[in-house]
Amino acid sequence: MMQKPFHFAAACTAACLLLVLILYAFADKPNERKNGFSRSIPAVKAVLERTLELKYPAYYIAGATDQHLYLGNYSASLHLLTVDQMLKDTQQLTFRLAAEERYAWKLARIMVDSPAVYMAEGNTPALYSGDLNSLGLQKFLPQSCFFNMLQNISPTSFISRSIHVDALGNQQNILAKIKTDSPYVTLSPGSITKQVDGIFCTDGTYDYDKQTGRLVYAYHYRNEFVVLDSNLQRQYTGNTLDTNTRAKIQVASMSTGTSKFSAPPVYVNSRVRTTDNRIYILSTLIADNENKQVRREQEIIDVYALDNGKYLYTLYVPLPTEDRITDFIVKGNQLFTLHDHTLHAYAIPTR
After folding, report:
1. Lowest-confidence range among 49-53, 168-172, 346-350?
2. Which residues of 101-136 are buried (b: 16+ CB within 10 A; e: fewer)?
């Protein structure tokens, strides 16, 4: 008699599990639901040409020339991997610092503007300069400010993203220009705009186009990017294809004084790159006229005109494995994509 309730409970549990599995199979996965926009057709597809297996993970693109790519590593701040654009020849470089130098090495990032090399870490803050020939790094620009992102735009100036605290104690990400002469730091409070909390809602990615002297800042959680000149004067605000005009985030304040997401955010724009008067934005959302399989087997890069922000076309990047793109760069008609353990080179159709 005691076995009947047990069998009934087991059957109910199995039925509930089966129902959950069925609902999951037919439900839209994150970032695969209808998003209220369409992309242009026919599709423009990148063609995979070459692949380089990387011995270690955690690389990022630190810079590029017409002949080489330079990969920094998040786990080894003084390490640089040089790769020719045929992905055949590689060279390991290790930079040197004075023994007394102290910095938060896990936060340090290398920037290559060949032959110049910079290493920056915004928590101390610390900024070092050197070159690819001597491999020595020296302390540089001690009149810096704290920052969480930094990019060089010339040998004497950098664009940083820093957290600004106003008179009421409110925090917000802002852009700033750091120079080697006075005034050393110039804040630009109106360059990026707050919607929710000032930190997560303004989070994003940026890239500088040396040909035009323009900086593009793309927000992670809304369909917006800002184009500024080298003095951080806003030229115009553009919009990506999706309809996320406001950041869909929920933020909770902790007792420690920090904040964190209280619900999973809707991630919109992953990475931005600029070159040849175009903006390339790695998108995480599928369009209403795309099949869900598109996002699973390919990456989606939307291309916009740098002059006016007009949408031009979408580049579909087939993935040979399940590894997603962690970083990318466009050089002429070549697209280089970085993944956890591989570097891929693609041919891009002329448009």
Report:
1. 168-172
2. eebeeebbbbbbbeeebbbbbbeebbbbbbebeeee
Is position 16 within any domain? Answer: no
Number of helices (H), then strands (E), in the chain: 2, 27
- As for how many domains the chain has, the answer is 1
CA distance 224 to 63: 25
Structural domain span for residue 306:
35-347
Is-above-0.85 flag for pTM? yes
For the chain, report the end-to-end CA distance as a whole number of angstroms. Answer: 75
pLDDT at 8 over 50: no
CB-based burial label for 288 (10 Å; 0-12, 13-18, 19+): exposed
CATH code for the domain in which residue 149 is found: 2.120.10.30
Q: How far apart are CA 252 and CA 117, in angstroms?
A: 39
pLDDT digits (tens, 9 = 90+) for 225-258: 999 999 999 999 999 999 899 998 887 877 666 7
How much of the chain exceeds pLDDT 70, in percent?
89
DSSP assignment of 20-82, as one string? Answer: HHHHHHHSPPTT-S--S----SS-EE-EEEEEEE-SSS-EEEEEE-SSEEEEEETTEEEEEEE
